[in-house]
Each structure stands twice: as structure tokens, then as C-alpha cells.
Amino acid sequence: MNLFRKMIIISLSFFSFLLFAHGSVSIKALIKDNKDNVYGSVSYSRTSDGVEVTVDANPGIKLAKIDEKIVTIQNLDGPTETATAMVYEFFDPASGAGVLVDLATRVYNNQKEVSQPMVKELINSSGIDESIPSEFMINTKNITKGSEISQRLPKAFQSVIYHPYSVYKNHISQNRRFFRSLEQNVYARRNQWNQFQQRVRSALGASYEDREAAVVQRIRESAAKLDLYDDEIKKFTEASLKKIIAPDHFDDPLPALTFSEDNQWREIENETMSFLNEFGASLYAPSFDGKYLDKKINFDINNELDHEALSIYIESNIQKSNLFQKNHRYFELSMAQNLIEIRQTVKNDFQEDILGRLSHMANFINEKKITNLLNMFNLYAKFDDFQKGMAASLVNNLNPLSIMHPVSANCENKWCRLGEYVGDAASLVVGISEMVGGFTITGASGAATIAAVAGGPTAFAIPATVTTAVAGMVLAGHGHSTAKNSFKSMYAKISGPKNVTQLKEANKSFGFIRNSARKLKIKTKEGIAKLARIKQSKSASKGLSGAAKHDFYKKQLRSSMPKPKVQDSTLSKVIDRHYRPNAKVGSGSTADAVRSEMLTGKPTGGRFHSEKARNDVQFLKRWLNNNPKASSTDKSAAEQVMLDLMESLGDI
Amino acid sequence: MYTKINAMTKILESFPDFKTKYEEHLMFWKDSNERTIGHDMDSFLDYISEKLENKKEYNFEKVFDVIEQMIVCEDKDLSYATSMHFLENLLNHSGNGYFPIESFFPYLGKESKAFCKANEEFWGIENSKFYEDK
Q: Rounded to whole angstroms, how far apart are CA atoms B44 and B46?
């Protein structure tokens, strides 16, 4: 039975002539697809006992009854009756085409589709008892046609970065075979083993437990003497057990053999059950590696809102996978995904209303409902705290040296935090750095559009793309209608002695990097290479979109960043052992050492730094994992150092 | 003979006071299979750094004797971890002002010094004490 090969549901009109009322005689019809390929025939005849259905397949066509159940059906002429509903698959192995025929329901109710339960049944037969929510599989709340499932399910699995559907399908098929053989073999052998245990117990009498313990001990000792005890895996091999148990301790060697094989079967059984559990878990609580956040993004599809968020997340991914290049739409869809990742990460801290808004914004991006997106955003922008959070986020995203000198919104409420999150997500879409430099914002109609968006209800133009809308949102978030005023306002919202100091420090550091690069050009080869990279990066970034360019600049600056300052004393020592002060190779980081060694091909003191860099990445990941409540400055520093290491290794 | 399997056990035998710190390190990596001998050596380095930083009386001679043996041992993973995670990080900490090079220089063995010198040269450190040593 192969549901997922190319199938074409037989057309409804084809069966319309089959309708018959009580007392009709037999009717025979050909089974055809919509290209008029004939697969077989179906005959209906009414007898005094009810309806009889006979199905025949043409030579070479495989026929499989997929589903059968008792249903109550409504005849077109009024009365109801109980009948058997059957779903057949006709499949032509030569062409790969086929039809699904849902006989009873097609005849009596030409609107009804029952293909979806068939898929449930298919998966259920592998041992998962509960039904599988259709939305997960196909991302729609409507009743789904079998033809849609056959076409979309494999793609849906692929789109959400599961294994290809065929992997699961093969597992299901193998497991089904396994269960059959389990019944026939394992249980029989287990009985044999139980009988053997009974015999041993009977022979040993009441002291069985003690004797058993003694036997185990003796086995261990013997194994150790015979050098059969494997230091590495810390367990006996099956062969060792057979050798030791059977001849020495029991009269009958056969049961010992049974013991061993029984164990093997149990191992397979456990593995299978474990697979099925994981499979079930992956269906009911899907988990993805975050694309934006370096975390696992978990969904609980028993929760309706989570379920909705998952659908949006998958939809964005499907749309992304259909794009041929990373254009502005790609980054828009990324923002939708980012919003969902943020939602899933903060869902325990925020109330449903806020979480719902994040989902809605993501959905509006998916559906390109720009006006709705702006309306949603206008709701937020009315809150001063939201503006404050967003301002801090944008300033940090504008400022590449925020890694070392981040400003803080000092958020005290959820709106402020939400502003930070949305600002972070928006920065990825719009080329924020371009705006600072006074460049045109990526989008269709430039500055006029921004003014329109920021102008709110009196806007004189609606932006053409989500990207432009997001650019507008950024500015509208500060209540100003021109870019210049908006940025002035943005900095005003985060003013405060500490933030002013951070911004000044950042400005100084940026000068320091530029000056260092100039000096390095003269003093070391690495300096020349670095400067070449910077020049190259300026040229290379020319063709990139705003978002990509922003990302590109950050990457370049990260590779030049001096040692970041952190508050946590443990992290501080870790960062310190990662940097060599007064070094002439880059900023003295391990990542710089890796880059330099890759450039020259020469190790340091006979050793390359790459292994150390990998260890440091693991350590920083672990530290971030163990310290979720660390300050945002520290976490940002750890993340940036880690990313720099990963970039140097070519891992990202 | 030191190997990456027995290195930490032997270090703990030689420096039993390191046990508490090492247990904290193991807790940090609890339920993870990503811990390597490099991370273990980081932990030992942190412990010795604290002793040097606080100018505590300690048997540094023994510490750097063990380090020398590990540097020259046949186990390449252990030798790598000792050089890159202990000695290089020791130099980094010293460079960051935790303690002067002089505080551990006299205890370094021949191979350890050779590695430190090569390491200082790689980073382009000027006027390093290791260049003076003939």
C-alpha cells in the first residue's frame, strides 16, 4: 500500500451517475482517473440484505482496501441506512499513477471526503493510538482531500526540517513487520524463557535469590579472569554470557541460549518502542533548532495557540523554501519566523494577548497583509514603554559595537520587553545600518512611504512591501514622521548617564579599531590581510540587500572586536583566557589565531588553535545554557565570542 | 605514563585540594557528553591561576613538573590540552594582569618554556621574558 505516490482522486462527476435509490438493480462502472486511464471496475447491487459492492482491478493494477468501517448514510431519496464504507487504492506500478476511491461516501454523499482518516489510520497502525491533528500535517483547518495530503505531506515534512517523509514511512513499514514477527517469535521465546526460569527456581528452591546473586558474582569474576570484561563498554557480550552461564552453572545449555536471544529481541523491541515514542513526541511536541535564536523552539500542539503559531511558522518556512533566492521576501518571512521563535521562547513569561499579537504579526507577514500589520503595530506604538524597549533594541542593532557597549532600556514591564523583541526581529529585515547612514531604505517607495506609515491614520500612501512597512514601523515606533527626527527621538528615549557613557565608549572603540587596522597594515601580515578583508567587505557588500548587508557588517566587525567587558566573574575569567593582550594577531582572540593559522597554514608551537576553538564554543554554549538569567550584556558577549569562534572555524 | 584517561585522576591524587573545584567543574558539565580533556585542563588552569593570583604558598614546582610530563607524553590529545588550554591560557591570564610571568617562570620545564616562547612569538608579543631565556 503506497498512499503517497502520485495519486489522483477520481472526479466527483464520474460517480454521479452511480446514484441509486432503494430497489435499484445492479450498476457497474469503470474506475478512471481524470485522464481517463482505466484501473478497474466497481459493481453495486442491492439485495434484501442491503448494498453489495464488488471491486475488480484490471491486469497489472494493484488493488488495496485501505479502510473499511460501518457508517450511517443518507440516501438522496430520504431514508438512512447502515452500510460499509470502503476506501480502495488502485495503483499502477508501471506509471506510478493511481486513484483513491472512497466508495460508500462517494455514492451517498458526493460532498464528503474521508481521506484524512486514512492517513491517521496508516500512522496509527504503527502503534501510535491517538489521532494526528491535521493542521500539523498540512497546515490548514479545512477538511483535506486525499490528493492534497498525498502531495503536501512529504513536502510539509521536508519544509519543517523533519527527515524526509520516506524515512518515517520506511520505519513504519519496518515496524509493522517487526510487530508481526514479535508476536510470532519473541513472545514464544519469552514463554520458553519463563519456563526455564521456573525450572531454575524450582531447582534452587527458596534460596533462589541468593543463589542467583552468587551466580552473577561468579560470572563477573570469571569474566574478569578470562579478560572478557570489556573496560570500554562495561558490559558482557552475548557470547561471553553464553560461554559462562550455560555449561558451568546449569545442566541444560539451551535455556541459556534462549536467554541470550530473548535479550536481543527485547533490545530490538526497546529500540522500536523508543523510536515510536520519539516519533509520537515529534508529532505532538515538535521541536526545531531556532533559525534566529540559538535555542530549541518547542511547540505543544495540544495548546491551541501554540498550534496556531506552529502553523504560521511552518507556513513561513514553506514560502521560504519556494523562493529561489534570498530576496526581500525571504527576509520578511524570516521576520515572521523570528516573531514565532520569540513567542515560543517567552511564552511562559507573557500573557496570551501579547503572544497572540506576535502570532498575528507573523501571520500578516506571511499573508502580505500590510495594512493589518501596520494597524497591529500602531496598537503597540501607543505605549511609551514599547517605544523605549524598541529604541534600545534598535540603537544596539544600529551600533555594531553594542557587543561591548550595549545600551539598556531597563525594562520594567512586558511592553518594554516586547518592544525589544520586535525591534530585534525588525532589525533583521530592514537594513537599519543604511538608515543611519542616510541611505534609502530597502523597499519600493522610499522616504515618502516611511512618512506615510509613520503618519498613522492620515497616511497618504500605503507601503508596497512588508519590508517597507517594517521600516516605517521602526520610525513610527518613535512617533515621528521623518527619519532624522525619528532617530533623534530614538536616542532621546534611552538617554541616561549610563547609556550616554556606553555610546561614547562605543564611538571611541570604533575609532580604535580603524586606527589599529591602519597600524596593522604597516606592522604585520595579518594587518594587511585584515585591511584587505575590510576593503573587500565594503566592495562585497555592495550587492547585498539591507538586511544581508547589516548582517555582513556585523560579521566583519565581530571578527575585529576587542575583548568584551562582562560582569559575571566566571565568564570574565573565561573571556580573559580567550584573549592575549598586546597581541599583534588581530585582537588577540582564539578566533583570530584560527584565522591566521588557516591563512598561513602554519601551526603555533606545533599545534593549531582550531581544536581549542571548538572546545571554547562548547564551553560558551554550555555557559549560556546554564545561565539563562545572566545579564543581557554578559549573554550578548558570550554569544558574540562564540559566533566569532564558529565563523573562524567555518561552522556558520 | 599520563594519558587523557588517567590525567585528571593523577592530578587529583597529586593535588587533593583541587577536588572541590573539580567537582564544581563536573557539575557544570553534568548530563553532557561534550566535556573534553581540554575543558578539564581549563578547570585545573583556573585553580592554579587563583593560587598564583592570590600569591598563595603552593607546591608550584610539582604543578609544573606534572605539566611538563603531560606536554611530552605520547597521548597527543593530552599534550594538546596541556599546551593550548593550560599554558596558553596561563599566559593569557598573566597578560591580563592576574599575575606576573615571573611568578611561574622559574618552575616551567624545558618543553613548557619552548611552547610558551613559540606562543609569544606567534602572538607578536614584544619584549617577552621567554626571549631572554637561552
A: 5
Q: What is the full per-residue pLDDT of chain B (134 aa) written as tens digits? A: 888 888 998 999 999 999 989 989 988 888 777 889 999 999 999 999 999 988 878 899 999 999 999 999 988 889 999 999 999 999 999 988 889 999 999 999 999 999 999 898 888 888 788 888 65
Residue A541 and residue A488 share a domain:
yes
For residues A21 and A145, state if they share a domain: yes
- Cβ A524–B124 below 8 Å, yes or no? yes
pLDDT at A301: 66
Place of cell 603555533: A604
Task: Clarify whether residues A389 and A355 are in a common domain.
Answer: no
Binning chain A into helix, strand and coil, the percentages to the nearest 5 are: 60, 10, 30
Residue A164 counted as domain residue = no
DSSP structural state of residue A349 = T
Q: Give the structural domain span for A337.
A: 285-365
Beta bridge partners of A604: A607
What Cα–Cα distance (Å) separates residue A362 from each residue in A53, A347, A356, A373, A486? 50, 15, 10, 9, 25
Q: Does one domain contain both A541 and A615?
A: no
* A601 and A476 belong to one structural domain: no
Mind spelling out the 3-state secondary structure of A472-526?
Answer: HHHHHCCCCCCHHHHHHHHHHHCCCHHHHHHHHHHHHHHHHHHHHHHHHHHHCHH
Cα-Cα-Cα-Cα dihedral sign, residues A479, A480, A481, A484: negative
- CA–CA separation, A406 vs A503, rounded Å? 8
The interface predicted TM-score of the complex, written ipTM, equals 0.94
Shared domain for A232 and A119, answered yes or no, is no
Q: Are residues A578 and B42 in contact, defined by beta-carbon separation less than 8 angstroms?
A: no
CB contact under 8 A, A573 and B93: yes
Enter the C-alpha cell of residue B17: 585540594
- Nearest CA distance, A604 vs chain B (angstrom): 6
Contact A593 B122 (CB under 8 A): yes
Q: Using the predicted structure, report yes or no on whether residue A137 has a pLDDT greater than 50.
A: no
Q: Name the amino acid, one letter, at A395.
A: V
Q: How many other CB atoms are found less than 10 A from the CB of residue A44?
A: 20
For chain B, which residues make up each domain, given as ranges? 7-132
Total domains, chain A: 5
Q: Which of A235, A262, A284 is the last residue of a domain?
A: A284
Do residues A438 and A340 share a domain? no
Tell whether A573 is within 8 A of chain B (Cβ).
yes
In total, the C-beta contacts within 8 angstroms joining chain A to chain B are: 78
Residues of chain A found within 8 Å of residue B127, distances taken between Cβ atoms: none
CB proximity under 8 Å: B 2-61 to A: 28-29, 32, 34, 36, 38-39, 42, 45-46, 49
**Of A132, A158, A184, which one is at a domain's C-terminal end?**
A158
CA–CA dist A416, A398 (Å, integer) = 18
Terminal-to-terminal C-alpha distance of chain B: 29
A5 found inside a domain = no
DSSP chain B: ---TTTHHHHHHHH-GGGHHHHHHHHHHTTT-S---HHHHHHHHHHHHHHHHHTT----HHHHHHHHHHHHHSS-HHHHHIIIIIIIHHHHHHHHTTSS-GGGTGGG--HHHHHHHHHHHHHHT-TT-HHHH--
Whether the Cβ atoms of residue A555 and residue A540 lie closer than 8 Å to each other: no
For A339-390, the pLDDT digits (tens) are 888 888 878 777 777 788 788 888 888 888 777 776 676 666 666 777 777 7
Rounded to two decimals, what is the model's pTM?
0.39
Residues of A in contact with B119 (CB under 8 A): 604-605
Q: What is the pLDDT of residue A579?
A: 86
SS3 A607: strand
Is the domain of A307 the same as that of A433? no
Interface membership of B123 toward A (CB under 8 Å):
yes
CA separation for the pair A68, A104 (Å, rounded): 10
**Chain B contact present for A277, CB below 8 A:** no
